[in-house]
Specification:
About 30% of the residues lie in helices and about 25% in strands. The protein is α+β, with helices and mostly antiparallel strands and about 500 residues long. It has three domains: about 240 residues, 3-Layer(aba) Sandwich (Beta-lactamase), CATH 3.40.710; about 110 residues, D-Ala-D-Ala carboxypeptidase C, peptidase S13 (D-tyrosyl-trna(Tyr) Deacylase, Chain: A), CATH 3.50.80; about 50 residues, no CATH class. It has a five-stranded antiparallel beta sheet with strand order 2-1-22-21-20, with helices on both faces. A hairpin with a 5-residue loop joins strand 1 and strand 2. The protein is globular, with a radius of gyration of 27 Å.
C-alpha cells in the first residue's frame, strides 16, 4: 500500500480524535454535558457566553459560571463551575432556603413585656421585663403600643427595674469574619435577640442620623435622630457655611462606644445629610426607647432601666402583660432579599440554631444551614459557610453547587415565597426590583431575570432564574472574585450573560 496514503489516513484519524476532545467552552473549562461532535444550539450558547467572558475587566480575576435547564437540571454551560468562590450576598440564597425549610413561611418572631410582680391600684410592684426573641422588625411604634397596653391596665407607676432580656440568643454580637471597618455602619450592625429598627426598611440595631443646616452661617448644624434616644452621644464638630459651598458631611460612630461624630460643612439652605448608623450594644438601645414610650404615656419609672451584663433572663414564673408578633417569614424575606439586608441574614442564622438546637448562636445556625443545603444536593465537601449574610470573605461555594440548589428547591411548597423574594431586573418598584431595579431596565431581561445580587470588595455575584426567548426557564449562577477596577464593568458582564440567556432560543 502507498505509504503516503497510510500517513494521510493516520493524520486524519489523529485530527478527528483531537477535534472530538476539544472543549466546547473556553480553555480549561468543563465541556458541555451530553455534547456531541456535531454543532448544537448549546455550542452556540457557549460561543456567545465565551465571547462575553473574554473581557479585559476579568483579567487576573477568577470567574465561575453555571447555567442549567430549570426543568431537567442539566448543566448547559460551565465555566470554572466547580471552583470554590466567595458568593458575597448570594450567601443569602442559602440562608433563605434553610429558613424556609426549617422555620416555614408562616414563622413569626415574638417580643413580650412581662413582670415578676403584681399590679396594686395604679402601681406595678415588681420588675418590668422587655423580652426579645429576635424580631428585627420591632419599631418605636410597637414600643408605644406596649406602653399604651400597660396604661390600659391602669399602670401609672412602676416600682421596680425595667430590664431588657436578650437571652434568646447568645451574647456574641458580630459574625466571626466581619471586617472591623464595617462595624460602625448599618451593613455591619450588631445582632441581639432584643433590638430595634428605625423605620420599615428594618435595619435592626441602627439609628437614622439626619443633619440639617443651622439657622445662620457659623451655627452648628441641627441633628435629628430617628428614633429619639439618649442612648447615643452626638459629637457635633460640623458647621453651617455659605450657600455657595458644597455639602461635605461625615457621620460615623466611634468603635466601641455610642459616640456619633459629625464632621464637615453643610451650606445654609442646603439639603440635609442622612445616615443609618449602627448601635453599640442594641439591647440597651431598645430599653432606652421603651423607657421614653412609657414616659410619653404617663407611666413613671422609679428606677433607671438597664440591660444587665451578664444578661438577666426573665423569671420563668413571670406574667405576660402584652406582646407582639412580627410579620411572617415570607413577608420578611422581601426586605431581606430585595434590599440585601445583612442583619436579617445573621438573625435568621441564629434563629435557626435556637429553634433546631435550642442555641441561638452562629455555630448552631450554620450547622442547620449546611444540613439543609446538602439535603438539596449541594456537595457539603466543597462548601464553607461562615455567616448568614455573605459579608464574610471566607464563605465558599462553587457556581455549579449554587445552581444545583436553585434547581432542587423548585419542587418545595414554599418555593413561591422564595422566588417572590428575589429582585426583579428593571422593575422600578423598590420592593420588587430591589437591588436590580436599575439594572437590565430594557430588553429581554427586564422584568424577566429574577436573581440575587452580591457585592464585596473584589467580589460580585448574580444568581437566579431567567426565561429564554422560546420560553424555557433557565438557572444561572455567576461569581467573580478578586477583580480590581470598576464594579460597574463586572456587573455589566453579569447583565450581559443574563440578557443573552433571556434572548436565546434553543
Amino acid at each position: 500500500m502507498d505509504t503516503s496514503k497510510i500517513w494521510k489516513r493516520g493524520l486524519l484519524a489523529f485530527l478527528l480524535v483531537i477535534l472530538m476532545t476539544v472543549p466546547l467552552v473556553a480553555h480549561h473549562q468543563s465541556p458541555l454535558v451530553n455534547a456531541s461532535d456535531e454543532t448544537t444550539q448549546e455550542e452556540s450558547l457557549a460561543d456567545k457566553l465565551n465571547q462575553i467572558l473574554n473581557n479585559n475587566a476579568l483579567n487576573g480575576a477568577t470567574t465561575g459560571v453555571s447555567i442549567r435547564n430549570a426543568d431537567s437540571g442539566e448543566v448547559l454551560y460551565s465555566y470554572y463551575g466547580d471552583h470554590r468562590l466567595h458568593p458575597a450576598s448570594n450567601m443569602k440564597i442559602l440562608t433563605t432556603v434553610a429558613a424556609l425549610e426549617t422555620l416555614g413561611p408562616d414563622y413569626r418572631f415574638n417580643t413580650e413585656v412581662l413582670t415578676d410582680g403584681r399590679i396594686r391600684g395604679d402601681v406595678l410592684l415588681g420588675n418590668l421585663y422587655l423580652r426579645g426573641k429576635g424580631d428585627p422588625t420591632l419599631l418605636k411604634e410597637d414600643l408605644d403600643q406596649f406602653a399604651a397596653d400597660l396604661k390600659a391596665k391602669g399602670i401609672k407607676n412602676i416600682q421596680g427595674n425595667l430590664i431588657g432580656d436578650d437571652t434568646w440568643y447568645d451574647d456574641i454580637r458580630l459574625s466571626q469574619d466581619l471586617n472591623w471597618s464595617d462595624e460602625p455602619f448599618y451593613t455591619g450592625a450588631q445582632v441581639s435577640a432584643l433590638t430595634l429598627s428605625p423605620n420599615e426598611d428594618y435595619d435592626a440595631a441602627t439609628i437614622i442620623v439626619e443633619v440639617y443646616p443651622g439657622k445662620e452661617v457659623g451655627d452648628k448644624p441641627i441633628v435629628k435622630l430617628t428614633p429619639q434616644t439618649d442612648y447615643v452621644n452626638i459629637i457635633n464638630n460640623a458647621s453651617t457655611v455659605n450657600t455657595d459651598h458644597s455639602r461635605a458631611i461625615s457621620i460615623e460612630r466611634e468603635h466601641g462606644s455610642n459616640n456619633i461624630v459629625i464632621d464637615g460643612v453643610i451650606p445654609l439652605e442646603g439639603s440635609n445629610a442622612r445616615s443609618w448608623v449602627s448601635i453599640w450594644e442594641p439591647t440597651g438601645y431598645a430599653v432606652d426607647v421603651f423607657k421614653k414610650s412609657l414616659e410619653e404615656h404617663g407611666i413613671k419609672l422609679n428606677r433607671n432601666p438597664k440591660a444587665t451584663d451578664p444578661p438577666e433572663a426573665t423569671p420563668t414564673n413571670a406574667t405576660v402583660l402584652t406582646s407582639k408578633e412580627s410579620m411572617t417569614l415570607e413577608e420578611l424575606l422581601v426586605p431581606f432579599m430585595k434590599l440585601s439586608n445583612n442583619g436579617h441574614g445573621e438573625t435568621l442564622a441564629k434563629e435557626m440554631g435556637r429553634v433546631m438546637y435550642d442555641e441561638g448562636s452562629w455555630d448552631k445556625g450554620l450547622d442547620v444551614m449546611e444540613e439543609i443545603v446538602t439535603q438539596f444536593g449541594v456537595n457539603g465537601n466543597t462548601i464553607l459557610l461562615r455567616d448568614g449574610s455573605g459579608m464574610s470573605h471566607k464563605n465558599l461555594i462553587p457556581a455549579n453547587e449554587l445552581s444545583q440548589l436553585l434547581f432542587e428547591v423548585q419542587d418545595e411548597e414554599w418555593y413561591p415565597a422564595f422566588e417572590n423574594s428575589l429582585p426583579v431586573a428593571g422593575n422600578s418598584e423598590r420592593l420588587a426590583g430591589g437591588t436590580l431595579r436599575y439594572r437590565m431596565t430594557d430588553g429581554p431581561a427586564a422584568n424577566n431575570v429574577m436573581a440575587k445580587t452580591g457585592s464585596l470588595t473584589g467580589v460580585s455575584s448574580l444568581s437566579g432564574y431567567v426565561t429564554s426567548k422560546d420560553s424555557q426557564k433557565l438557572i444561572f449562577s455567576i461569581m467573580v472574585n478578586n477583580y480590581i477596577g470598576s464594579s460597574t464593568a463586572i456587573r455589566g458582564i453579569e447583565d450581559a450573560i443574563a440578557t443573552e440567556l433571556a434572548n436565546f432560543e434553543f
